[in-house]
Amino acid sequence: MTNQEAKSGSEDMVIDGFEPDDPAVGQYNSVPDGFNVNYLKVYYGKLFPHADIFRWMSYGNDGKHPACDQSYLGRREFSFTLDNDIYIRFQSFNTASELENSIKEKCPFKIDIGPVYTVDPAKRFAYAQTGDTVFSPVERELVFDIDITDYDDVRFCCSGAEVCLDCWPLMTVAIKVIDTSLRDDFGFNHILWVYSGRRGVHCWVCDGKARRLTNEQRAAIAEYFRVYKGNENSQRKVSLVGPLHPFLARSYTDVLKGYFEEKLLQSQQLFATEERFEKVLDMIPDEAITSELRGKWQQPFTSKEDINVVRWGQLKRMLQSGKHKKGLHICVEEIVFSYTYPRLDMEVSKHMNHLLKAPFCIHPKTGRVCVPIDPQNCEEFDPTTVPTLSKLLEELNTRGLRGDADNDWDKTSLGRSIKIFRSFLQPLLKSCKEELERDYNARVQQMKNSLSW
Question: Please, which residues bridge with residue 143 across strands?
């Protein structure tokens, strides 16, 4: 496919390497793996949910209701990263067509979303020349960024940007713990979880009261979740004080303990070697106990049971027996928290002007789509099966000949992800419309009351 063909958005696009084996039945070879501008042209032209993203970012301010703020979307910052690492910040769009046309024209390798400012970010220099400091962020989703590379000291199957099904449950735990607390402890309802495309997850809390939080309030919420406070040189990276805070106790009982004992204990072989069990023993501040356990574990293991399960059981019984100094029982919880509790990038959550990658971008290293994750079924999410750019184009070409789909993404494996996003979007927009209506009615009533005097 030539660049001109890609730019034209032709309905009959066929990707290079896609030749029909049997034109009569429409059987096609697979699209070559890759990530390039030509592939992105097709993706942005046929599959990217431009209208849904616009509706999301408008928060109900895209209609004709007199309470709508027609400048709202135009004050939101969008940032594009183009080919050759060309970075364009402070873009703004007033309409859905402006946003869509710009994405199709520039074909960004990545789209980042920033805050809503007091004025149009594209015109910030004009306001700066007036001498008034009016250009500042006033609204932004409360966001969280969790990267599996921050768990490299407790996962042994992978390291760095690598991810597999043995360590991905750490991200599942993070989603379950944070999502439950945001809803139950803070009263938020409209929460979007998104796969980063490679090695982590992003969380967008979109309730009106979340979007209007100050930096100080955001920092307080981020600090509420902060338990893991160590660094690579610390032996005890979690220090708990009993009795546990209700949020921590609930997280331990409902999520952490089960995932540690039923999944991570064996998948990560946490007690299988001396190097690994020494990491655990370092968390116990009692030399008598660590010496006794070390002596047992250095002996040949002859049981037919799993070595990790046996040794974890021995450790728990010793710490919880009550025969040793007071307070050691909490070491069991500390060990579980150290290996499983969510590790947040605190700075991302604390500041309103932090940019975060938009859903449905394509990760340039993996080619995978940044798809939404259903938090109610997050344990079913498999990062290794997330659709790639080349796979989607292959599906477009092979299934595009059928006329049984209402739109292009229903012909591909992206369709389910669009439905998850819309299931998040529908109640959010309903809530936004109701809030606009309430505010409008309150203002009207206030005006009536003032006129009655």
Answer: 204
Q: Which residues, 6 or more positions from 93, have their beta carbon under 8 angstroms from its beta carbon?
A: 73, 74, 76, 78, 99, 102
Element (H, E) at 77: strand 76-82
Average pLDDT, the chain: 88
Short-list 243, 273, 247, 267, CA closest to 339: 267
**8 Å CB contact between 145 and 348:** yes
Residues 6+ apart with CB under 8 A from 411: 395, 396, 399, 400, 402, 405
Q: What is the pLDDT of residue 34?
A: 78
Beta strands in 107-228 (DSSP E): 110-117, 137-139, 142-147, 191-195, 200-205
- What local confidence, expressed as pLDDT, does residue 402 receive? 55
Asked if 311 and 299 count as a contact pair (C-beta separation under 8 A), the reply is: no
Residue numbers annotated as active site: 77, 145, 147
Which tokens in the block code for residue 344? 């947040």
Please give the full DSSP string across 197-239, using - where no structure is assigned.
SSSEEEEEE--HHHHT--HHHHHHHHHHT------TT-S----
Nearest to 178 by CA among 254, 126, 289, 113: 254
Kindly report, residue by residue over 18-72, the tens digit of the pLDDT.
443 334 334 444 678 878 899 999 999 999 999 999 999 999 998 777 888 999 9
Global pTM value: 0.89
Give the separation between CA 130 and CA 239, rounded to whole angstroms.
52
Angle between helical axes of 274-281 and 287-297 (0-180°, round to 10): 160
407-438 pLDDT, tens digit per residue, is 788 889 999 999 999 999 999 999 999 998 88
Between CA 107 and CA 434 the distance in angstroms is 36
Question: pLDDT tens digits, residue range 329-386?
Answer: 899 999 999 999 999 999 999 999 999 999 999 999 999 999 999 999 999 999 999 9
Single-letter amino acid, residue 97: S
Give residue 27's pLDDT. Answer: 44
